[in-house]
Amino acid sequence: MNAIPDRSPAIVGVVSYRQTVDSVGYETVRIRYLEALRSTARVLPLVIPGGLEEESLQACFSVLNGVLLTGAESNISPSLYGGPEACPETLDLDRDRTSIAAIKIALSSGIPLLGICRGLQELNVALGGTLSSDLSEGEGRITHVEDLTLPRDLQYARSHAVLAEGHGYIAQCIRRSQKKPVLVNTLHRQGIARLADGLEVNARCVDGVIEAVSVKDAATFAAAVQWHPEWFHAEDPLSVEIFRAFGEACRSHMIATKSQP
């Protein structure tokens, strides 16, 4: 009797974030991230709530083949990188704790990792870097925040060029996308100030802002971008490259894990 092939998908943990709507708290993940994982990366997303104890987070990772750190409306607490005090309403301390712990577990365990917007900032802070509170400030800088008067799709439209740098995962995706110039969207006020020693730049905006990084000497895909590839994940060539590369790394992790005795 022939064995039934194992068609189990790779499982990717998606760290959620806290929102309060009409005085009710929610753990939130935008659907677009889940759609990008399911249809472009071809993996199964599993939501990880903020504020988990270490033991519970470790239990999640026992079944994960990857982790996605999404964007969010909150900012990372400046107390984690020595920045100026911030308004408590702009923070999400449970998300901070969960994301930073998840980064450390993923990197130490060789589990693929993709960060988007806040996720890039979390990766930099977790490895010892610092953040700028306003990337648009400074001579020669372009505006890095969205125009909230525009329809949502136009807010997420590609608006400025990025230049590949080095040979990391995102730099490779940029070169494979074969679009010149390579344009990305820009919807972020905060970003990297001092790059963590454990990271290398994969792309910069034309004004010098760091737009993508990867983890030096990582055993697998471990990278992050400042823009939002999830919004046009099926149409934009660079977005497709990023999610496909991440999905392939997650499936490779799943296969390697199942082959272990």
General description of the model:
- By secondary structure, the chain is of the alpha/beta class.
- The chain has a single domain (11-259), classed as Class I glutamine amidotransferase (GATase) domain (Rossmann fold, 3-Layer(aba) Sandwich).
- The protein is 31% helix and 22% strand.
- It is built from seven helices and 13 strands.
- A hairpin with a 4-residue loop joins strand 11 and strand 12.
- Helix 1 packs across helix 7, helix 2 (54-61) crosses helix 3 and helix 6 (169-177) packs across helix 7 (237-259).
- Mean pLDDT is 91; it is low at 1-5.
What is the strand tally?
A: 13
Task: Determine the fraction of residues in helical runs and give it as a percent range.
Answer: 25-40%
Average pLDDT, all residues: 91
Strand order in space, largest sheet: 4-1-5-6-13-12-11-8-9
Rg over alpha carbons: 18 Å
Task: Give the count of structural domains.
Answer: 1
The assigned structural class equals alpha/beta
CATH fold annotation: Rossmann fold
CATH class: Alpha Beta
Largest sheet: 9 strands, mixed
Residue fraction in strands: 15-25%
Order of helices and strands: EEEHEHEHEHEHEHEEEEEH
CATH architecture: 3-Layer(aba) Sandwich
Number of helices: 7
Low-confidence stretches: 1-5
From the spread of the alpha carbons, the general shape counts as globular
CATH superfamily: Class I glutamine amidotransferase (GATase) domain
Distance between the termini: 24 Å
